[in-house]
Amino acid sequence: MTLLLLSLCGMGQTVLDAEIFKNKLSSTPNGQLLDVRTFEEYAQGHLKNSLNIDVTGSSFEQKTLALDKSQPVFVYCLSGARSAKAAKQLVDNGFKEVYDMKGGYLKWSSAQLPIDKNEHLAKGVEEISQDDFEKLIASDKPVLLDFFATWCAPCKQMMPTMQKLTKDYEGKAVIKTINYDKNKALTQRLQIDEIPIFLLYKNGKLLWRGMGLMPEKEFKEIIEANL
Question: Is 155 a catalytic residue?
Fold first, then answer.
């Protein structure tokens, strides 16, 4: 299969999809791999031999000075927004060749490409077990799951709606918010590679799947139809 370059974002900054990113990285002997997510995200799973420097941290620019500007840099985050920001900063600061992974770690892990995980870093991070998840969705009431992350702006915009639905349907339906960063194994099983995403279950069966910014009315319609 011919792999195509997806897009160019300006001189020195190139966006590649996950598979092309992987192949380009493996064929670049002096490639520098940079994970620009938070430490907590990094601890849950990351690309092997990646260096973690949080692009939202105040010391990002200073820490990247340790990298070699004359050698290629491969950048990724969770979904692509933060890595695009980081790639631009690197180019602006004189890095000659920067590759940004389109779709980020979400696309990489959903494609079941190899990841590395430091168990000692992840210790103490809450996770919903498979048994707990099965018990949750087995309810004979509608169960609406909201997958979010603290860094995700649309997720934050949806929180007031989720809170209102929780109050409005108390005793009639279960509304539960699940942190994507703390439940990577679960989201991979459910093939979740974009957030926010909403899943409605009843009696263990998935009845509906929604994504992105959605009006309260739409949630109420789907819950009412399954009471």
Answer: yes
